[in-house]
Design goal:
The complex is a heterotrimer of chains A (about 100), B (about 300) and C (about 100).
Chain A lengths: L1 H17 L1 H7 L3 H26 L2 H12 L3 H8 L18
Helix pairs in contact in A: 1-3, 2-3, 3-4, 3-5
Chain B lengths: L1 H21 L3 H21 L3 H28 L11 H23 L8 H7 L8 H9 L1 H19 L10 E2 L10 H23 L7 H17 L11 H23 L11 H25 L2 E3 L2
Antiparallel strand pairs in B: 1-2
Chain C lengths: L2 H26 L3 H27 L2 H35 L1
Helix pairs in contact in C: 1-2, 2-3
The chains are: A mainly alpha (about 100), B mainly alpha (about 300), C mainly alpha (about 100).
GO cellular component, one term (chain B): plasma membrane
Pfam families (chain B): MbhD, MnhB
Main location (chain B): membrane
Chain lengths: ~100, ~300, ~100
Amino acid sequence: MMADLFMLAALCVLISVAGALIRAWRGPGRADRMMSAQLIGSGGVGIAVLIAAARSEPAILDVALVLALLAAFAALAFVKTVTPKGAGDPEADEAETP
Amino acid sequence: MSLAFDLALCALILGAAGLAVAGRNLFGSVVFYIVYGVLIALAWVSLGAADVALAEAAIGAGVTGVLLIGAWQGMKDAGGLEAEITKSLPVRVLAGLGAAALGALIGFAVLSLPGHDGLTGPVAENQPALDLGNPVTAVLLSFRAYDTLLETLVLTAALAAVWSLTPARFWGGIPGPKHTTRPDGVMASFGRLLPPLGVLVAVYLVWAGADQPGGAFQAGTVLAAVWILIVLAGLRDEPRLSSLILRLIVIAGPLVFLGAGLAGALAGLALGYPEGHARTLILIIEYALTLSIAATLALLIAGPARRAP
Amino acid sequence: MNAMEWFIAGLLALGVFFYVAGTVGLLRFPDTHSRLHALTKADNLGLGFIAIAAGLHWGDGWIAGKLALVWLLTLFAAGMAAQLVARAALKAEGGE
């Protein structure tokens, strides 16, 4: 009963993050596309937690842990692409950027 | 309810894969591929294969994104984004036919697999001899250890291939551009705060790998991600590729693995473990492999040297 | 269902609600910087409710700690990403 409830919630989160694919397709900016990947990443963390609880399988929680740990890596690589050669920091002022 | 979830997940995976291939916007395709990695990790979760799910979560959702975005940046710097990349119709038809043939072959291979249980039974029978709780580790490091040994050598060979692209004047130099960040900025703080947690998770994964899902490959990938983060955050530069210590770390895992196999040969069983010592030897190999896989993956993503030593 | 199970079901419903809110925001908000709000706030709140529901269902201290770590890592990553993506979007608008 509770397991079904957790799987139902996982299905709902999955359908919800599927909507983010529309934003990834339309853009318009690269930031918008990257944001939908972020949303699907955090949806993935939620879904992994829900499946772990539905099956009482602690190992799946480790998958959620790794997904959460590495969730921001692609976003970090992305924000560097707006700087020269992708080697700077968008927070640095133009004068500081060599 | 699980069936409904699996069907929706399959539809989404096919959708994300299709959009990654069909899109005209190259950065959009990169994003769809990252999304595809997350979804595939969830598919392995749903199939109950936590070991594979861990590897896919670290590789597909984490490291591949950095690699592909780096490749996109390289194309942009080289002016490749504006170039006309549309191929002629025959080329596209041939590519489509090739992909379809490969897909049919894989489908055929999957359908011709022996029944449901596969090798679960024999593995469960022989696993107690190794004193390992995780059947996947038992298969990877004992029953099919030569596969894993060759895979680690493939990784090392791939790194040699990437290094061979280095221009002569940069040989043994430093890969990638020098990353600079605002010292007190968000990026630098993130690069200081996350690595300790990442190292903790990696140590946990390789420690857990003996008896639960986890292992050298998963832990090595997380460590590689930590390495890449520290470089991207501008806290440490990439190492010189001529560094002896670095090269020793890269080959330490395969060397220990080969050494254990050769020691087995001297004891009468090539690539085998002496009775009663399997668990100890497997753990030593796992820990050495973790470091080598971490260094190899991080250096593969950093690419050939682009600055003089 | 007993009271605890109803409570967990309520938490799950809240979690799903915030995930849906995040998606709706990402699709409906007019510009990149508004959409960033939907992304970094709503779905992390959703994950928080889901993590609490999973922790209560499991009823194990170690698991609860791991769930808390998962949630904190996600919050942390989202905070970092929000700051930097906002800057990146500003630069992209000005520079390209």
